[in-house]
Specification:
The complex is a heterodimer of chains A (about 575) and B (about 190). Chain A contains 23 helices and 22 strands. With about 575 residues, chain A is α/β, with parallel strands linked by helices. Chain A has a six-stranded parallel β-sheet with strand order 3-2-4-5-7-6, with helices on both faces. Chain A has three domains: about 170 residues, Thiamin diphosphate (ThDP)-binding fold, Pyr/PP domains (Rossmann fold, 3-Layer(aba) Sandwich), CATH 3.40.50.970; about 160 residues, TPP-binding domain (Rossmann fold, 3-Layer(aba) Sandwich), CATH 3.40.50.1220; about 180 residues, Rossmann fold. Chain B has about 190 residues and is of the alpha+beta class. Chain B has two domains: about 100 residues, ACT domain (Alpha-Beta Plaits, 2-Layer Sandwich), CATH 3.30.70; about 70 residues, ACT-like. Chain A, domain 2 (Alpha-Beta Plaits, 2-Layer Sandwich), CATH 3.30.70.1150. In chain B, a hairpin with a 2-residue loop joins strand 6 and strand 7. The longest helix of chain B has 13 residues. The chains are: A alpha/beta (about 575), B alpha+beta (about 190). The structure holds flavin-adenine dinucleotide, thiamine diphosphate (TPP) and magnesium ion. The site of flavin-adenine dinucleotide has 37 residues of chain A, from helix 10, helix 13, strand 13, helix 14 and helix 17.
């Protein structure tokens, strides 16, 4: 039976198990929208801006570990997706972006709403396609989804001219996909594994850096077993948080620019560093040249290009963590490093003040995020970018993979609201909190209307400090208090919520925090909590840009702050 | 140091763009790049001369491999290889000078491929050093136009840089043709 290109697109999505698409219509995708009602298995969520749709696909992918899909029309619709595509690229999220384009005879002729979108997205995707024939659609979707979800995951973009949606052909779904230029790595080289095991067995002060790859590769159990067998403390990158339960005895939290004092010093004093599924990013490692140059570095990554890119690895192991870790667990001896753990614990005790929750009467973000985490330990947490993001990373106890959803590599403000919506769609019936910056919230707040339409009961905590806080902190510390364009007059967030028909709560005092959290969670629909927090708090500790981890700067000592 | 990197790529629209974009984005310096068809249908061979240390070339190779359309990458720098480049030089030359130019052509085992009363086109196929030397010797006559193809290379002996995986006709059509304008009239006019 012959089918139109539009039907083939939707049929292909079904074959791929895609049950939701975040999209926005326009002229060239009308043939596709026309056929949506005939495919009720694919739920279409009408977003309010294509960037929002892109972040929703990312949030969905992060929360579910499955392919997230966003759809847009040609020209402006397609270019609006670009921020989300680059964000998914930086954080390796399995996502598929589908755009329409002008009909084939107008391509390259500056047709109405034509953008060379495959040219634009080329450096921002794992792979992209311009489909010029209806017969190629099914294969392109099969191959594209395969590329997006395997190996090091990433965004794939498929651009389809309008008339290709309309042409008809037989639907042929490929039995299997085979790409000679794409063979994702699997097990580690046995020789490299053996070398690594010897170094690990001889280590006195080993640490593990558990990265996002552990979560993407679904290898959190393997990570825990490996850490336990070798007695090695685990530090996490921002995106690796949740790869080991934060309450595990070997979990020592985040390292990096806003990592804890003890984590950064453990990394700087280790004799063996085992990087597992992390890309040795500058925010995590500080100045590369002085990132513990004497330690032996073992680096497990599925993408060989990450080895020796930023720091030289003594033993690079190319492979999937899910397969390499069992090889390593098998090869290493049972071990423990009690003195080393004590050394780190002592540092933590002595430097507790540097990451303390303010104990005074002020309403601090640290206190709020800590309470949300304590009262709702299983909630999925989505954040924006800025101070609130770092405080969430520092003070919330992530106990499972995919629990923290945050824009790490691109650091995209405005990620929080739409990504939380996408996460809620992936996890219906569960609690999703969006920890929002008052700045970032206003970058994508149009998606509040989508939340109402899609009935996604996200709990949005706006950390209303009246500032682009993270930038203000840099101006305070590195530009001598010269505050330029960081203070903002905020709208009345309660009235704003009211306009959307969203329940809202205002919190001005510390004592109101618990009640507000309870009230928000008790409400069936989406909720906005306007937390009017202290305006000028700073995130500590901090490794200034370009400094080494061992140069971590602590909070000025203040007797009123204690750390629980 | 100059490295010769040979990449076998799917002959698809945009593949040159992908490779060029990667070099620009990662800040790798390309000295020359030559592309052409190969022994395998649907596969092009790119010969890229990259300037940089061992670390840079390692990254070049690995980043190239990340492109889905790149099937195989080989670094010929450490191999015994035949290295050639074609140069065409249009040199100013009147009747009196012709003999002198032809002497140079002989010495460099080049060829004169076109003559006019005031000029001559010299063609040379050699490695870049010999071509450089020829050009320097022709310079005093006055070079009116110069074009070079960039390096192509092939490993000596039985070893090859060829792909070892062929594709089915079906897949070949997909990987080779997809993204190209179909032949003939398009059925649809856009609104
Ligand atoms: C304001 C701000 C402050 C920040 N501060 C910090 C900070 O203090 N500390 C910090 O750590 N980060 C910080 N970040 C985040 C930082 O920018 C990076 O995003 C983060 O460090 C990257 O973590 P990652 O390398 O674990 O994850 P990714 O960047 O996602 O890299 C994952 C790696 O795992 C590999 N991989 C994927 N799947 C597999 C698999 N199956 N098997 C093996 N390998 C696999 C990939 O190839 C890749 O190399 C901050 C970001 C912002 C916006
Ligand atoms: C789209 C975008 N623009 C600019 C920035 C630079 N930036 C990083 S953090 C920050 C301030 C964020 O302010 P807010 O959302 O209020 O969070 P806060 O730091 O106050 O918690 C800015 C402007 C960014 N990360 N993303
Ligand atoms: Mg703010």
């Amino acid at each position: 039976m012959k089918m139109s290109g539009a039907d083939i697109v939707l049929e292909s999505l079904k074959r791929l198990g895609v049950d939701v698409v975040f999209g926005y219509p326009g002229g060239v995708v009308l043939p596709l929208y026309d056929r949506l009602p005939a495919h009720p298995e694919v739920r279409h969520i009408l977003v309010r801006h294509e960037q929002g749709g892109g972040h929703m696909a990312e949030g969905y992918a992060k929360a579910s570990g499955r392919l997230g899909v966003a759809l847009a029309t040609s020209g402006p619709g397609a270019t609006n997706l670009v921020t989300a595509i680059q964000d998914a690229m930086m954080d390796s999220l399995p996502t598929l972006f589908v755009t329409g384009n002008v009909a084939r005879n107008l391509l390259g002729k500056d047709g109405f709403q034509e953008a060379d979108i495959t040219g634009i997205t080329m450096p921002a995707v794992k792979h992209n396609y311009l489909v010029m024939r209806v017969e190629d659609i099914a294969y392109t979707f099969a191959e594209g989804a395969y590329i997006a979800t395997t190996g090091r995951p990433g965004p794939v973009h498929i651009d389809i001219p309008k008339d290709v949606f309309i042409e008809e052909t037989e639907f042929v779904w490929p039995e299997k996909v085979s790409i000679r230029g794409y063979k994702p790595a699997t097990t580690g080289h046995p020789g490299q594994v053996k070398k690594a095991a010897e170094i690990i067995d001889a280590a006195e002060r080993p640490i593990i850096i558990g990265g996002h790859g552990v979560i993407l590769g679904n290898a959190h159990d393997e990570l825990r077993r490996f850490a336990e067998k070798t007695g090695t403390p685990v530090l996490n990158t921002l995106l690796g948080l949740g790869s080991i339960p934060r309450d595990h005895v070997l979990s020592y939290g985040m390292l990096g620019m806003h990592g804890s004092y003890e984590a950064n010093h453990a990394a700087s004093n280790a004799d063996v560093i085992i990087g597992i599924g992390n890309r040795m990013d500058d925010r995590a490692l500080g100045r590369f040249a002085d990132f513990n140059p004497t330690a032996k570095l073992i680096h497990i990554d599925i993408d060989p290009a990450e080895h020796n890119k930023n720091v030289p690895a003594h033993v690079p192991i190319v492979g999937d963590v899910k397969l390499v870790l069992p090889q390593l667990i098998e090869a290493v001896s049972q071990n423990s490093h009690v003195d080393w753990l004590h050394w780190i614990d002592d540092l933590r005790q002595a430097h507790g003040h540097s990451m303390a929750v303010p104990s005074g009467p002020e309403l601090s973000v640290q206190h709020i995020v800590r309470r949300i985490s304590e009262m709702s330990p299983d909630a999925t947490i989505v954040t924006g970018v800025g101070q609130h993001q770092m405080w969430a990373a520092q003070h919330m106890k992530f106990t499972r993979p995919h629990q923290l959803i945050t824009s790490g590599g691109l650091g995209t403000m405005g990620f929080e609201v739409p990504a939380a919506l996408g996460a809620q769609v992936a996890r219906p019936g569960e609690t999703v909190w969006a920890i929002c910056g008052d700045g970032g919230f206003q970058m994508t707040l149009q998606e509040l209307a989508t939340m109402v339409d899609a009935r996604t009961p996200v709990k949005m905590a706006i950390m209303n400090n009246g500032y682009l806080g993270m930038v203000r902190q840099w101006q305070e510390l590195f530009y001598q208090d010269n505050y330029v364009s960081v203070a903002m007059t905020q709208p009345d967030f309660l009235k704003l919520a009211d306009a959307y028909g969203i329940h809202a709560i205002r919190v001005t005092e510390k004592e109101q925090v618990d009640d507000a959290i309870r009230e928000a969670e008790g409400h069936a629909g989406p909720v906005i909590v306007d937390f009017q927090v202290q305006a000028e708090g700073n995130v500590w500790p901090m490794v200034p840009a370009g400094a080494a981890l061992k140069e971590t700067v602590e909070a000025p000592r203040d007797a009123s702050e204690v750390r629980s | 140091m100059k490295h010769t990197v040979v990449a076998l790529v799917e002959d698809r629209p945009g593949v040159l763009n992908r490779v060029a974009s990667l070099f620009r984005r990662r800040g790798f310096n390309i000295d020359s790049l030559a592309v052409g068809t190969t022994e395998e249908q649907g596969i092009s061979r790119m010969t890229i001369v990259v300037d940089g240390g061992a670390g840079i070339v390692e990254q070049v190779e690995k980043q190239l491999y990340k492109l889905i359309d790149v099937v195989k990458v080989s670094d010929l720098t450490k191999e015994e290889a035949v290295i050639r480049e074609l140069v065409l030089v249009k040199v100013r030359c009147n009747r009196e000078q012709r003999r002198d130019v032809l002497d140079l052509v002989d010495i460099f085992r080049a060829q004169a491929v076109d003559v006019s009363p005031s000029s001559m086109i010299i063609q040379s196929v050699a490695d870049e050093d010999r071509n450089d030397a020829l050009i320097e010797n022709l310079r005093p006559f006055g070079i009116r136009e110069l074009t070079r193809t960039g390096r192509v290379a092939m490993v000596r002996g039985a070893k090859t840089t060829a792909v070892n995986e062929s594709e089915s006709a079906e897949l070949q059509r997909f990987h080779h043709d997809s993204g190209r304008r179909p032949e003939g009239d398009l059925p649809f006019v856009s609104d």
